[in-house]
Amino acid sequence: MNTNATSNEKKPPYGIIVILMAGAFVAFLNSTLLNIALPSISADFKVDPSVGQWLVTGYMLVNGIMIPTSAFLIQKYSTRRLFITAMSLFVAGTLMAGIAHSFPILLLSRMIQASGSSIMMPVLMNFLLTSFPIERRGSAMGIFGLIMTFAPAIGPTLSGYIVEHYEWRMLFYVVSPFAIMVLVLAIFKLKDKKEKTDIHIDRLSVLLSSLGFGGLLYGFSSAGTKGWSSIHVYGTLIIGLIALIFFVLRQLKMTAPMLEFRIFKYPLFSLSAIITVVVNIALFSAMLLMPMYIQTVRGISPFHSGLLLLPGAIIMGIMSPITGRLFDKYGARTLALVGLALTAFTTYMFSQLSMTTTITTLVIIYSLRMFGMSMVMMPIMTNGLNELPSRMNPHGTALNNTLSQVSGAIGSAVMITIMSQRTKTHGEELAQEAMQKMSNTTTQPSPEAIATMQEQLGMKAMLEGINDAFLISVGIVIVALVLAMFVKRAVPPKELDEQTGPTEMNEAVE
């Protein structure tokens, strides 16, 4: 037997992986690119900021609806066909958005973008799982982690610079050439080696999935701005929950489900999914609360606030491949325990913010937090996926990505709610103290002095509300830390892999 030939056959298709990762990078970057530009876009189209927010909410909803269908799509179609379709949709949406002259067209363009980008992450993750042996998956997923974390993290900084110096359309003009280049490379370089599979999607499952995950995402994402008492919030949450229950029950009864929930019988996958959800909720505390503190409380511009958070993003990006190699060598448990302990400590430090906290201190704490987070997310997720047989990989990646979307929305809603409620409480307490001090003085302050004092009290109340939300986040991280103690190195069941064979994998070669 020719050993060299065998090793060449098993060599991962790095050319394809580079193309897939380039497409994923552009798509992930786009997910946060518009956040800072929303006020400019709302003013340009003369729409209310709450309407303009739909450019982000709509993008997220399409992701939440499309990702659960990715397991079926990966099994039905080849990597080449899926990626070229996804990239074509993304390019079409980007070009449309750049020339959109009405808000509805821009919103439609963003949703077309999202329909393409939502397919890329599961396709890339599944391709990496099937291209690398289990002992090298950590390194592969570490590179993926670099893209997944670094691209969205630099989005606000890049967006802040562009919006400050150019019109918002430049955001799409900058992305378009790179997206087109990746699409052209994919058309000429990706080739198929996938046998035709005769499976059909259940339309009722798609409907229930869309209502279920879409309802939950919309409900939780709206809670921060509309409040939990709004019918838009609790109404969509109830509809989403009921639809999701029926969706899960239907999948459990089907022999070929759209999304296989039976993979939760694998304990390490279930544990990794729970930890991922908990960590995602905690992760959004810094992603949401830090910009509020930096921009609203401290009055730093969006671009400079993005620069302030950039070192943490760079550290997380650098650490992702290193963490992948450490995962292959030591497993997920040690990395997760160290990472979560560091995350808990730095999150507590964020709960002690003041009006005089130095910029250097903020950069150091945030960077250390990102360093800790880099040791948790991808190792835990990869360890859980490693326990699954090959035929379950598409379902595992789809469920992980869906849970990340939903838990991110939950984290946003919870943190915004806690911050808002505590800000209100602290505001009332500070106002009472100020009134008592004023009643004890003989001279009445001028209206200008009262207005200045009210503004200062409002900022101080928000600061305390942010600190309280960070303190709650510490408790959430500790929950994940306790769960991480039960993590073990996962090994896929060999007998299932042998039964399924390579024909059920989504293979592609150069």
Automatic annotation (TrEMBL):
Gene Ontology CC annotation, any one: plasma membrane
Entry-linked InterPro entries: EmrB-like, MFS, MFS_dom, MFS_trans_sf
Lineage top rank: taxon: Bacteria
Pfam families: MFS_1
Primary location group: membrane
Family matches, as CDD domains: MFS_LmrB_MDR_like
NCBIfam families cross-referenced by the UniProt entry: efflux_EmrB
Family under the similarity heading: Belongs to the major facilitator superfamily. EmrB family.
Protein name, entry field: DHA2 family efflux MFS transporter permease subunit
Species whose genome carries this gene: Niallia alba
